[in-house]
């Protein structure tokens, strides 16, 4: 018992606080909550920016792929038209829909967008060009209005 008392006397007690009561004060807890809140707000803003950038990059890459498919189809002897299996350039939505379904050129080669583009995003694309000689088909992507 003397040994325990001797060892206990070697551990200095902190002034102003009982050694047995350990924990955080209210001020410390409030400080932690404030810091976590600030970090959460900054993180949400950062992640929102990353999501917007990812959506824009995906749209731009899809536009490049659509342009490549359409021009490859025309180069392979495919004729733009409104029949099934042809590239319908009457509107952007029709052009994307026909590439989603697949088109076949004069040599029997099939061109299909894979994975298919979501129809709800058709309005974010614009197609220009007719596919005639010297007129490439170009798809462009625009970020939807109201996006962060």
Share in helix: 40-55%
Mean pLDDT, nearest integer? Answer: 84
Say how many strands there are.
4
Please give the radius of gyration in angstroms.
Answer: 32 Å
Describe this structure in words.
- This protein is mostly helical.
- The chain has a domain at 60-148.
- The protein is 47% helix and 8% strand.
- The strands form 2 sheets. The chain has a two-stranded antiparallel ribbon with strand order 1-2. A two-stranded antiparallel sheet has the order 3-4.
- Strand 1 and strand 2 (110-111) form a beta hairpin.
- The protein is rod-shaped, with a radius of gyration of 32 Å.
- It starts with a helix and ends in a 7-residue tail after the last strand.
- The model has no long low-confidence stretch (mean pLDDT 84).
């Amino acid at each position: 018992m003397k040994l325990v008392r001797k060892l206990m006397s070697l551990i200095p007690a902190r002034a102003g606080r009982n050694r047995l009561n350990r924990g955080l004060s209210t001020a410390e807890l409030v400080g932690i909550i404030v810091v976590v809140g600030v970090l959460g707000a900054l993180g949400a803003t950062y992640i929102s920016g990353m999501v917007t950038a990812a959506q824009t990059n995906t749209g731009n890459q899809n536009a490049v792929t659509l342009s490549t498919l359409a021009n490859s189809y025309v180069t392979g002897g495919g004729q733009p038209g409104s029949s099934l299996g042809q590239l319908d350039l009457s509107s952007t939505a029709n052009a994307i829909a026909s590439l989603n379904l697949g088109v076949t050129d004069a040599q029997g080669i099939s061109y299909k967008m894979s994975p298919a583009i979501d129809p709800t995003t058709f309005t974010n694309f614009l197609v220009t060009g007719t596919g005639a000689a010297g007129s490439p088909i170009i798809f462009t992507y625009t970020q939807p209005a109201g996006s962060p």
